[in-house]
Specification:
single chain; two-stranded antiparallel ribbon; about 60% helix; mainly alpha; 7-stranded parallel sheet
Length: about 725
């Protein structure tokens, strides 16, 4: 896919807009009528009302889509054939009219795709534009002479409908769909290419898809209902554009009567615009669920209740309860509509009825998958303000799951427990390390003091000076031996770096970045997190003697700071205002919960570290002054003691690394503030880009790992 974009010289866009092939427009209907198919416009006003509906699509392209594409340097994927997609036709008209606004090089790219070669070869007009394309494109020219010409002469197309290529766009990707070995048209490779293209783009930038009009059940066809299902299940937000003014407050039980009344207004003819009915059913489905959910909320949640994680989980459970009563009703409605649609289609097209039941069942199942998918959204073409707001919301929509799965919550709890225990143990070893070092310095200074103190100091006390020095020396050796055996400094630094790595892994999983991205094929993010967690456990004690310690003992409950306060209360919701350590974290909350606290931490440490550094420097200077004064007054007896204090202070300065810490903290604040400024400078669309989100999270987490792992001074 990368080479495809390099061949087209298309820079990485900030947004991808996919216009899914939407048949059922005026040109599409006219081509069927010319081919002898008995179709009539499914509008009470006939062709004039159909043209008005397409004018609404034109205004949508003109006032919403083109400004958005220009603002985001978008890549727009359209159909390459004339009249095969009403969305593409509306976009082409808007581009032609406003071409001077964008100049020779518009700020967006339009790539046209098609696999309708059978309909192109049905067009026998010598001046057809597709013939010019076939002459110019060398691979098409060779394929035409070797395969296509003979294939379509022998087999013909699926029907007598003729298309032509559109010359309104700058880049084209065409697939002839001919399987010369089986002697049939095969659209699956083209569908697979489209899916791979969309998946590749969705890993980098936000994507939205737009659909309207008519669908079929042909496997692999761009127009099929299955193609909409595939688009939705890939995670791409899809807008179903409604061209009819259905009642806005309709409930699910009223859909059948409302639609039957509409069929009466068009004289019982075949309403092939089934996407409009999907919009009707989805609106009624949402209205019914919201009404019941509101009723349940009023019954179960006290008014003015504080929004907590518990209340969010309760509301999530109420949403599930609100949906359950309508599932059977929705299934019956879809079965009813599928039977109605299929029978009308058979009458209009003169199709055989022997597979009618199978097609009814297949359509009902696929429509159910479409309606229930959370990525499907409905917009009215005649409501420009409403569709503008919806598009704006979708292009900045994060791609995180709304809730964490129960299995993911359990796994996260285990990870948090491991982090809390190892971080606590690292703190304990940190205290041991510093105490042991301070103890050695004090014992060394005491040894020097006992050696150089005047004999008169011990006249009034019966002590064995040499014995005390011997005992202190033994204590120094014992302390050194114990420190060597425990090795607290190494354990502290290893546990600190390992706990920091686990914490970064948790944040990467909660933000679904890098290997935990939802776009990674082959495994779920939870499985990838489990593998990384197990790998972390296996590598925890490598190169150390931690296995000989009490690392895996049971710890008091107060050690675990990230335990779930409530268990088995439903899935964690991302709508909570505070971080509960288990919900998926969108970028805005990641900045609030992770980036900003890091800046605050280092900013708070800088003054404290500077004061410690100045105090230590003053003490070292004082020792130097004392040494000079004692030397001047010829008090050599005390000079070794002062020198001992001086060397101890210098050793502690080197151990504590206050200079390096102050420099590191200052650089940390500068780097994190720079990253924060970069994030603030992005547009809403860019902040929804997986590339930008990955850069944000990886920059922060790599910084934390570098700070905790590579720097020897903690």
């Amino acid at each position: 896919m990368k080479r495809v974009f390099e061949a087209f010289e298309i820079p990485t866009p900030k947004l991808v807009i996919r216009l899914i092939q939407s048949t059922g427009g005026v040109d599409w209907t006219r081509s069927r009528i010319r081919a002898g198919i008995n179709l009539q416009y499914p509008y009470p006003g006939g062709e004039e009302e159909a043209l008005q509906a397409e004018r609404n699509l034109y205004h949508f392209m003109e006032e919403v889509l083109l400004p958005l594409a220009a603002e985001t340097n978008a890549l727009i994927l359209v159909q390459a054939t004339v009249g095969s997609c009403m969305l593409t036709s509306a976009l082409g008209q808007a581009l032609d009219l406003h071409r001077n606004r964008f100049g020779e090089r518009p700020p967006f790219a339009v790539t046209a795709l098609t696999s309708d070669f059978d309909k192109l070869y049905n067009n026998e007009n010598p001046s057809a534009k597709w013939r010019d394309f076939a002459k110019v494109v060398s691979s098409w020219r060779r394929r035409h002479r070797g395969v296509l010409q003979d294939f379509f002469k022998r087999h013909g197309g699926r029907d007598s409908i003729a298309y032509d290529m559109s010359d309104a766009f700058s880049q084209y990707i065409v697939c002839d769909g001919v399987n010369e070995h089986d002697g049939r048209m095969d659209f699956n490779p083209f569908t697979a290419f489209n899916s791979a293209l969309l998946q590749h783009l969705m890993q980098q930038v936000p994507c939205i898809a737009i659909r309207t009009g008519h669908t079929d059940l042909v496997e692999g066809d761009e127009v099929s209902l299955g193609n909409i299902v595939a688009c939705l299940e890939s995670g791409c937000p899809t807008i179903m554009v409604n061209l009819r003014q259905w009642p806005s407050s309709l409930m699910l039980p009223d859909v059948q009567q409302t639609y039957q009344e509409f069929l009466d207004t068009i004289g019982g003819r075949w309403d092939y615009l089934d996407c409009m009915v999907i919009c009707l059913i989805l609106r009624a489905w949402e209205n019914s669920r919201k009404a019941l959910e509101q009723k349940l909320v009023e019954q179960h949640v006290p008014s003015g209740a504080r929004k907590t994680r518990q209340s969010a989980e309760d509301l999530s459970m109420l949403a599930v309860m609100a949906e359950a009563p309508f599932r059977n009703q929705l299934a019956e409605l879809l079965q009813w509509y599928s039977r109605l649609f299929t029978e009308a289609q058979d009458r209009a097209l003169g199709s055989s009825e022997w597979q009618s039941v199978d097609r009814q069942h297949q359509r009902a199942l696929q429509m159910s998958a479409v309606v229930k998918n959370e990525h499907l959204h409905v917009a009215d073409a005649f409501d420009i303000d409403g569709i503008w707001q919806l598009v704006r919301e979708l292009v900045r929509l994060d791609r995180l799951p709304k809730q964490e799965e129960p299995e993911g919550i359990d796994l996260l709890e285990q990870a948090w427990c491991e982090y809390d225990a190892k971080n606590y143990l690292a703190g304990v070893y940190k205290v041991y390390s510093k105490l042991s070092y301070v103890g050695l310095l004090l014992l060394s200074a005491l040894t020097v003091a006992l050696t150089v103190l005047p004999q008169e100091w011990f006249l009034e006390v019966q002590v064995d000076e040499q014995g005390i020095v011997f005992i202190v020396t033994l204590l120094v050796g014992a302390a050194t031996t114990v420190t060597t055996i425990m090795n607290p400094t190494q354990r502290w630094r290893v546990l600190r770096s390992k706990s920091a790595f686990l914490l970064s892994t948790i944040w990467r999983y909660r933000t679904r970045t890098k290997e935990f991205s939802t776009w990674q094929p082959g495994q779920k993010p939870r499985q990838a997190f489990c593998q990384r967690f197990l790998q972390w456990k296996a590598e925890l004690a490598e190169g150390t003697n931690l296995l000989e310690s009490t690392m895996e003992k049971a710890y008091p409950e107060w050690v675990y700071k990230h335990l779930r306060a409530l268990t088995s209360k439903g899935p964690a919701s991302a709508d909570a205002d505070d971080d509960d350590f288990y919900t998926p974290v969108p970028p805005a909350k990641y900045v609030l919960f992770r980036l900003q606290p890091a800046i605050d931490f280092y900013q708070a440490r800088i003054p404290w570290m500077a004061r410690r550094r100045r105090l230590l420097q003053l003490c070292i200077i004082a020792c130097s002054l004392c040494s000079s004064i004692l030397s001047h007054f010829k008090q050599g007896t005390w000079m070794p003691l002062v020198a001992s204090f001086y060397s101890s202070l210098c050793a502690w300065q080197e151990f504590a690394g206050l200079d390096q810490k102050l420099r590191r903290y200052t650089e940390a604040v500068q780097a994190l503030k720079g990253l924060q400024s970069w994030w603030v400078s992005l547009t809403e669309v860019e902040r929804a880009s997986p590339l930008c989100i990955n850069r944000l999270v990886e920059s922060v987490e790599e910084f934390h790992l570098k700070e905790q792992t590579l720097n020897p001074k903690p």
